[in-house]
Every structure is written in structure tokens, then in C-alpha cells.
Design a protein that fits this description.
heterodimer, A: mainly beta, seven-stranded mixed sheet, 0% helix, B: five-stranded antiparallel sheet, globular
Chain lengths: 111, 113
């Protein structure tokens, strides 16, 4: 069974630029999560989808972050404009029921 | 009060010893509990799931759950240097159309030769 796929693996951008991350979950997994992990901290949930509907986006900075999951499969997370404090690893995870499995993550550096 | 609390460590244990990692959670409605291992520069990897009170063993790992005390622990027997990593406790609660998975900040474990 293929795991969660994410791209790109690394991204360096200047502040105020925009960036997008892509995630393809494990086949058949209805739930998709985007987490932000800052160095030394635990993953923080940004947004959670159940199929193509948003279940929780309470911690998503909606003035600059957006996410979509069209057709209930792939998802993209966008940041526009980026700030220095957005430097982090962006993790995508998916689950069929309760156990969530992570992709390799995208390490974003904002300079 | 944080939803999921862990001691950040580092927790240092000698090779071959038992490592004990602890986690407390605040929401009594939480239903599922997980331990993830995260090596430096890598993504979290699920190593244990536990859903009911008591112990669950898988190889050298034992997860313990006490819902009355809102406490989850992970024991690693015969600790090896390869167990050196950050261990993340995660708690799942159903509701609002989905399962919300919340993580603690992680405990760094160092297994010394």
C-alpha cells in the first residue's frame, strides 16, 4: 500500500511570496489532515477534511492560509503572503478511521 | 491547560533499561490514544494505538491507558540506541463530523551506550 505522498520536500521563499504544498493521501482514506510543526514543538493541526468537506479549520490563519481538497482525494495548502514565522515543516496525514499516517512533510524556509 | 501534555525531556536511559514516557490529556471525551516516534528531520511514525483501559503490548513496546486519571504511558523495554527519538502522544476525539487528532509537544528520549 502506497503511503501519503507530499511535494515538494523542501521550499525556500522570500517573505511576502506565495507557496503551495500538495498532498495525496493513502487510497481509501476519507480523512486528511494538514499539520504545521515548528522545530521543537509537536504538530499543530491547521485544517482537517472529511472527504472534501472541512471538519476543523479553527487554527488556520485564514488571512494568509487556504486549503482545498477537490474530489475528496488530493489536497493543496497555500500560503499567501508568507511571513518569517511560517518557517516550519508542513505535514499531511490521512486516516481511514482513527489511525493517522503521515507523509514525509515539506520543509518551508521563509527568508 | 494544554489538551495533551508531555514532559519535553530529554529523558536519558542506559542501553538495555526500560524507558517510561508519560502523557496526560484534558478532554474526558477522548476515545483513542496513540504514540508516534519521530526521528530528527523525519515525519512522525505510528508505533502504538490503544483504545481501552489497561495495557497493550507489541514487541518491546507497552502502552498503558487509564481514562479515569486521563493518563497514557509508553514503556520501551530493553532500550536500544536506535530508540533515541522524540515520542509524540496523540489523542483522538470524535465529533463535529470527524475525528480530531491532537498532539503533545513530545518527549525526547536518549538511549546511551
Amino acid at each position: 500500500e502506497a503511503g501519503v505522498a507530499q511535494s515538494p520536500r523542501y521550499k525556500i521563499i522570500e517573505k511576502r511570496q506565495s507557496v503551495a504544498f500538495w498532498c495525496n493521501p493513502i487510497s481509501g482514506h476519507a480523512t486528511l489532515y494538514w499539520y504545521q510543526q515548528i522545530l521543537g514543538q509537536g504538530p499543530k493541526l491547521l485544517i482537517q477534511f472529511q472527504n472534501n468537506g472541512v471538519v476543523d479549520d479553527s487554527q488556520l490563519p485564514k488571512d494568509r492560509f487556504s486549503a482545498e481538497r477537490l474530489k475528496g482525494v488530493d489536497s493543496t495548502l497555500k500560503i499567501q503572503p508568507a511571513k518569517l514565522e511560517d518557517s516550519a515543516v508542513y505535514l499531511c496525514a490521512s486516516s481511514r478511521i482513527t489511525e493517522a499516517f503521515f507523509g514525509q512533510g515539506t520543509r518551508l524556509t521563509v527568508v | 491547560q494544554k489538551e495533551v501534555e508531555q514532559n519535553s525531556g530529554p529523558l536519558s536511559v542506559p542501553e538495555g533499561a526500560i524507558a517510561s514516557l508519560n502523557c496526560t490529556y484534558s478532554d474526558r471525551g477522548s476515545q483513542s490514544f496513540f504514540w508516534y516516534r519521530q526521528y530528527s528531520g523525519k515525519s512522525p511514525e505510528l508505533i502504538m494505538s490503544i483504545y481501552s483501559n489497561g495495557d497493550k503490548e507489541d514487541g518491546r513496546f507497552t502502552a498503558q491507558l487509564n481514562k479515569a486519571s486521563q493518563y497514557v504511558s509508553l514503556l520501551i523495554r530493553d532500550s536500544q540506541p536506535s530508540d533515541s527519538a522524540t515520542y509524540l502522544c496523540a489523542v483522538n476525539k470524535s465529533g463535529g463530523g470527524g475525528n480530531k487528532l491532537t498532539f503533545g509537544t513530545g518527549t525526547q528520549l536518549k538511549v546511551e551506550l
